[in-house]
Specification:
Helix content of chain B: 25-40%
Structural class of chain B: alpha+beta
Oligomer: heterodimer
Helix content of chain A: 25-40%
Distance between the termini of chain A: 49 Å
Largest sheet of chain B: 5 strands, antiparallel
Number of helices of chain B: 7
Number of helices of chain A: 5
Largest sheet of chain A: 5 strands, antiparallel
Strand content of chain B: 15-25%
Strand content of chain A: 15-25%
Order of helices and strands of chain B: HHEEEEHHEEEEHHEEH
Largest interface: A-B, 43 and 53 residues
Shape of chain A: globular
Chain lengths: 198, 265
């Protein structure tokens, strides 16, 4: 139906950078703060949801989304781009279940969602996603929690604790001081809320 | 067969490579939806400005048992058949919308929304809920912000309908692909003023009944535009618990509301 661009819009600069990805990261850094923490017996993801006006119906939209009963996701950056990735993640999870008759492990989901994000940095006529995802899940094989971050570049990282969005540098410094491997789930929730306030 | 505009873009990109410096854009961030150095999408921002170009303002209010959308009806030429001029559309028997912005883009979005709703009914056997339809339109808008070959549409859609628990809902979508439920919202030229006025008027728990909701919406629009409407100058769309089908008020019905408003002062 539509003419397709046959070349990528994300190209190398003379210094070897992919500037569109850097700009996408600026869009993420301007987004609402989000935080993810891996506790001893679980993982917490949280985000700030502030509306500028009382006319918005806060309960009509949710930012923290369920992908499978054991994996959840939150973001910093552009909401509309996030919805696309939520849909993609859910479809990936179901396809995996259909193929292997088991729930997708968190690392597999993170890797496949990151692959989708990478495709949009190289395919023709599209721009990178303007979101950083924080994916938290329970790993049934090791019986432990896992937290991953997926960036607009398509890179994904496992974390013990991390923050994205506005003020993420201060938030991460705060987490470095507060985090310990022995953190219980209740403590992790309060730490997450405190980090958002930083 | 490569389209000519693509050849121009490639030639431009190749020649620009020599002049790129850190932090500056190639110049295309204003023409297609790629990121600017500040992480913004200029094409999307321009699409928002296009919404004001239609020179009308619309607003919607969600009451306790009804949801109302109101818009100006401007017939620019006496030779036009006024009965064919409208910005209010029925998408399904239970969901209606008002389009603000470029009329042609608005119509295109309505046609697509109707197709999506019909497809949903065919596939799943029941009518699409208003929030799902709003989400679907917003998802389509998001694709236009990410692909270079299609521009974002210069229009905003406000949908009303009753949800599964028979509560009235009001949703608004915009060219950025964002959508949200609202207690009240507005779009068009006087959007900012209208939103400020609605925020003030809707402070606290008001529990507006059907007639209150309609009159609140009409009064706010009149205040913001500083005009006293005639019934032929506005359109009103409504869903309510007593009549869950989307209906547009007739001129006589609008007249009785305007009279009621005049009597209140």
């Amino acid at each position: 139906m539509t003419e397709r661009y046959s070349f990528s819009l994300t190209t190398f600069s003379p210094s070897g950078k992919l500037v569109q990805i850097e700009y996408a990261l600026s869009a993420v850094a301007a987004g609402a703060p989000s935080v993810a923490i891996k506790a001893r017996d679980g993982a917490v993801i949280a985000t700030e949801k502030k509306y500028k006006s009382n006319l918005y119906d806060e309960h009509s939209i949710s930012k923290v989304e369920v992908i499978t009963p054991e994996i959840g996701m939150v973001y910093s950056g552009m909401g509309p781009d996030y919805r696309v990735l939520v849909k993609a993640a859910r479809k990936i999870a179901q396809k995996y279940k259909l193929m292997y008759d088991m729930e997708i492990p968190t690392i597999q989901l993170a890797q496949r969602v990151a692959e989708v994000m990478q495709e949009y940095t190289q395919s023709g006529g599209v721009r990178p996603f303007g979101v950083s995802l924080l994916i938290a899940g329970w790993n049934t094989t090791t019986n432990g929690p896992m937290v991953f971050q997926c960036d607009p570049s398509g890179a994904y990282f496992p974390w013990k604790a991390t923050a994205t969005g506005k003020n993420h540098i201060n938030a991460k410094t705060f987490l470095e001081r507060r985090y310990s491997q022995e953190l219980g789930l209740e403590d992790a929730v309060s730490t997450a809320i405190l980090t958002l306030k930083v | 067969l490569i389209p000519l505009h693509q050849i121009y873009v490639v030639a431009f990109l190749v020649s620009k490579e020599i002049f790129i410096s850190r932090g500056s854009s190639l110049g295309f961030d204003r023409f297609i939806t790629v990121f600017s150095p500040e992480g913004k999408l200029y094409q999307v921002e321009y699409a928002f400005k296009a919404i004001a170009s239609s020179s009308i303002t619309s607003l919607g209010v969600q009451g306790v048992d009804s949801a109302v959308i109101v818009t100006q009806k401007k017939v620019p030429d006496k030779l036009l058949d006024a009965s064919t001029v409208t910005n209010m559309y029925m998408l399904t028997p239970h969901v209606g919308c008002v389009m603000t912005g470029y009329a042609a883009d608005g119509r295109s979005q309505v046609v697509r929304a109707r197709a999506e709703a019909a497809n949903f009914k065919y596939k799943f056997g029941y009518e699409i809920p208003v929030d799902s339809l709003a989400r679907r339109i917003a998802d389509i808008n998001q694709v236009y912000t990410q692909s270079a070959e299609m521009r974002p549409l210069g229009c905003s859609m406000m949908l009303i309908g009753l949800d599964e628990s028979l509560a009235p809902r009001l949703f608004k979508t915009d060219p950025a692909g964002y959508f949200c439920g609202h207690r009240a919202c507005s779009a068009g030229v006087k959007q900012t003023e209208a939103n400020n006025l609605l925020e003030k008027r809707l402070r606290g728990d008001l529990a507006l009944t059907k007639n209150d909701t309609i009159q609140m919406a009409i009064k706010c629009l009149m205040n913001v535009l500083a005009v006293d409407f005639k019934a032929s100058e506005i359109e009103v769309g409504l869903v309510s618990a007593e009549n869950p089908l989307f209906t547009t008020l007739t001129e006589d019905e609008i007249d009785s509301h305007l009279t009621a408003i005049a009597e209140q002062d």
